[in-house]
Design a protein that fits this description.
heterodimer, A: 145 residues, alpha+beta, Thiol Ester Dehydrase, Chain A, B: 150 residues, five-stranded antiparallel β-sheet, 5 helices
């Protein structure tokens, strides 16, 4: 976990978070937890009709990306997460979450990229997050910058 | 085609929902996120939180359980449920949100695009939401793009 602005530099890569393979039971649990009962995620016949088979909730994959983010940077410092859903994910697929620092801005703000992909490297969701971290450097007025 | 364009500017009826620690735990468990701050108030306090904080994607729970579930959303936006995809999602936070807070949400359709393509066209419907806590402080915003294939 990174706690200070100075400890991160542009280009730094965060450790990959690897999830357990997605199960159908997990999709049922996620449906109940989130309230997204679109049957495409839980009912085989609906998946067949749609031509895709049962697919995971996009928000489950975003949640996994968010898990990665808050395993690198404490939740309280994360100010935003914006992602785009790129590919469908099926039960049995295993998600790996990667991230890296792409910009350091004023007010101790970092901008980072985050991606969630399967074993083959197919990107399921990708986007950016921003976090404002405490500084180690004390300003002249005595407060943290 | 033209009817969907008329959705732009549509304001959703506001809704309120409390942030329940059981729902935080349930969402974190479904995602498989083991971070103790989502399960245990003591662990959260030890890490500098005033209570159990919400996971980044938790506002979906407020929206779907407290406001517009998938079916209601499809009806309101006149979407064909089997043609709907989630295109983009973003969350911005301005103040911490903890278990036992109550959030009031106002949402609006901010943009509608109709795209034509070689593999069939699509409608892109962008909604933005504002979340206020029980002290009427703006604590978060979200933005999502819903895709409806033609």
């Amino acid at each position: 976990m990174w706690e200070y602005f100075e400890d991160l530099n542009v280009g730094d890569v965060f450790p990959t978070v690897t999830k357990e393979p997605i199960t159908r039971v997990q999709l049922v649990k996620f449906a109940g937890a989130s309230g997204d009962f679109n049957p495409l995620h839980t009912v085989e016949e609906v998946g067949e009709k749609a031509g895709t088979g049962v697919i995971a909730h996009g928000m489950l994959i975003m949640g996994m990306a968010a898990q990665g983010v808050t395993s690198w940077i404490p939740r309280k410092y994360v100010n935003s997460l914006q992602i785009r859903f790129r590919k469908m994910t099926k039960p049995g697929e295993q998600i790996h979450v990667t991230g890296k620092v792409i910009e350091k801005k004023e007010n101790n703000c970092i901008v980072c990229e985050v991606k969630a992909m399967n074993d083959e490297g197919e990107i399921k969701v990708s986007g950016t997050f921003e976090a404002a971290l405490p500084s180690k450097i004390m300003t002249e007025s005595g407060g943290n910058r | 085609m033209s009817a969907v364009k008329e959705l732009a500017g549509l304001k959703l009826e506001p809704y309120s929902f409390s942030v329940e620690k059981g729902k935080i735990r349930e969402l974190a468990a479904a995602i498989g996120d083991p971070n103790p701050i989502y399960y245990d108030e003591e662990a959260a306090k030890k890490e500098g939180y005033e209570g159990i904080p919400i996971p980044i994607t938790f506002l979906q729970v407020i929206d779907l359980w407290g406001g517009f579930n998938f079916e209601k959303k499809c009806k309101m936006l006149n979407l064909n449920p089997v043609m709907v995809l989630h295109g983009e999602q973003g969350y911005s936070f301005f103040k911490p949100i903890y278990a036992n807070d109550t959030l009031t949400v106002s949402g609006e359709v901010v943009d509608v695009q109709v795209k034509k393509g070689s593999t069939g066209g699509m409608n892109l419907i962008t909604l933005e939401f504002e979340y206020r806590n029980q002290h009427n402080e703006l604590v978060a915003k979200s933005r999502n793009v819903t895709i409806e294939r033609h």
